[in-house]
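ok so I'm stuck.
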Amino acid sequence: RRDIHDQLHVVSLPDTLIQALHTELSSALASLPGTELEAKGMAFALHYRQAPHHEAAIFAIARSVANAHPQLALQPGKCVV
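replied:
not stuck anymore, here's the structure
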């Protein structure tokens, strides 16, 4: 990320954490048909546009993961978190 003073800040997560999160999230979303996990390097997008009835479950999963890993933050969007 580049800040207001044009300074570059590298933000990253350990590879082991990224792999563990990918496994955990993939497993959780497997039981929610129509949802999709998008891995974005150090971020994950949990999509539910094709399954809006799973919105509460997606947010519960996302909150649970974020609460377990304080270095993570939720960023909700339109049918995605």
